[in-house]
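Can anyone check this?
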Amino acid sequence: MNPTTTQRRWLARASLASILAAVLTLGVFAGARTVGLLAVGLVGLALVAAGLWWSLTRQGTLRVLAVVLTLGAPVWVLVAYTRAHLTWVAVLAVALWLVAVATGRAALVRDEDEGAAPMPEHPAPRVRHPVLIMNPRSGGGKVRRFELRERARDLGAEVQLLEWREGSEGSDVAEMARKAAAEGADLLGVAGGDGTQAQVAEVAAALDLPFLVIPAGTRNHFALDLGLDRDDPSKALDALRDGVELRVDLGSANGLPFVNNVSFGAYAEVVASPAYRDDKTRTALRLLPDMLAGHQGPRLSARAGHVEFAEPQALLVSNNPYGTGDIAGLGRRARMDGGELGCVGVRVTSAAQAAGLLRGRRAAGLVRTNAAHVVVDADQDRIQVGVDGESLSLRVPVRCEVRPRALRVLVPRHRPGVRGARPMLDWRRIGRLAVGRRG
């Protein structure tokens, strides 16, 4: 339950009081040394920010040195305070600052933020012939590990295994879904990654059939935002015996469906790497430095509603906007039925701008907006695009659209649910709340 307006005001006041207490603690107990110690702390923060940026934009020995700087700066600050015999003062000040951050975030939470109200549930349709397509390779073999085929058959579902062939997985799974529907399936489902989910979701939406998501992929962002249990994909099958229906939006990029997002620029080039599918994190860390520090790809431009994006290094268009608590726009979506696309553009050219991304909406290197249509253009005829994590080459302009509540998703009645997105700290809003103005 989110706090009431009165509670939010008191939380804002507590946040500001904690900051004041932290400053007074340093002033009273450190005396004349306060300014010097504050300077040490600020320099330490600057070194950490620079180290983080260099660790992203450099490779090899320089990256190692950047990591050493990032870890060593806080140690240097602690040693400086210890030599001044003020360690306990520093610890107390940091604790008060953490209280200020926690109460500040709590003060900014409200029901209408990020569309926090849950998506409405509808009675589940009666299903007589469910057909589930399962990718045995997905998620390192989750279909076998969680006995998904056997459990689905025990619940009366017909199971078809997807046979993987180089370059044909998407078309095969969509054709399998269309054939199953033609033979009488009244529910289509997929155990696989988000890219596979999108292919069958498009068929289900076109035929107005309910769709079952079984999170057997690696990341399963779509399942996460539906409130499903990603740790045990077999629990998604409970929807066949006690489920409810959610009606969610479905995105498209040049006619290709997506349930999560379409990425352009730096991130799309990472997705295009042959190593990405096997080790997403390590591949991103290896390739992002060159992408961000010296992006050599096509020069992008985009228009989302009335907002223009000029030469972003990375651009993300999502099926409904992500929460603002993530500086890259890759947080969680509290709702997926808002009928609009989220659009996030990033252009970072210095350590100062990288650190500035922590400011969220007001960061100099970050532009965010929502729109029903997004058009992305480039100085090349075709560009590499990541569609739900699958690398594709698309002709420009790439036109992204959203189809409101086009997809009927069957989910278990009892499921973990979606946590509300954490609000980004905004001290001006906190100040307005503290004095009784609207936050």
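Reply from J.R.: I decoded it. The chain is about 40% helix and 25% strand.
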